[in-house]
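Q: Hi! First time doing this. I have a protein sequence and I read that you can turn it into a structure. Is that right? Here it is:
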Amino acid sequence: MPDDMLNRTKVENPKELFVHKLGAALTMENTVEEMLGGLIEKANDAQLKQQLRHHREETQAQIRNLHQAFSTLGMEEKERPCPAIEGIEKEGESNLGMADENLYDAIILAGCAETEHHEIAVYETLIVHATALGHEDIVALLQENLEQEQHTLGEVLKATVKQAEKQRVSA
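A: Yes, that's right. Below is the predicted 3D structure, encoded as C-alpha cells:
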C-alpha cells in the first residue's frame, strides 16, 4: 500500500479503514501509556500504584504488538486521531482537578474502567476487520492485546469495589 494513502484524508476501501483504525489504536495506547505515568504519581494506595505500573508495562507490550502489526502489513506505523481517548483523558484530568486528594484513587479507577471498556471495543472491531481482510497473523497480536485489556478491566472493577467499600466505611 503506497504511503500516499496514509496522507489522504478520505478512506476509500476496507484495508485503508483498517490501517486508519490501527493508527488510532496506536495513538490510544501511546496516550494511555503517558496517562498511566501521571496516574502512578497521583494514586494514594500502594497497591493501586503497583497495578498502574503493571498496566503500563502491558501497555508498552501492546504498543509493540501494534508496531508489529504495521510491520506485518509492510507499512510504517503512523498515529491517527483518537478523539475518544482524548475525551477520557480530559474528563479524568478535570475530575482530579476538582476533587480532594482522598478521592483520587476512586477517580483514577473510574477513568481506568472507562478506558478499558473503550480499548476492548477498539480491539474487538480491529479483530473483526483483520479477520475479514485475511490477516490472521495480525489477529493473533490484536487478540493478545484484547485479552490483556479484558483481564485488566476485571482487576480494575475488583479494585473499584474495594475502594468503594473503603470509602463507605470512612464516610
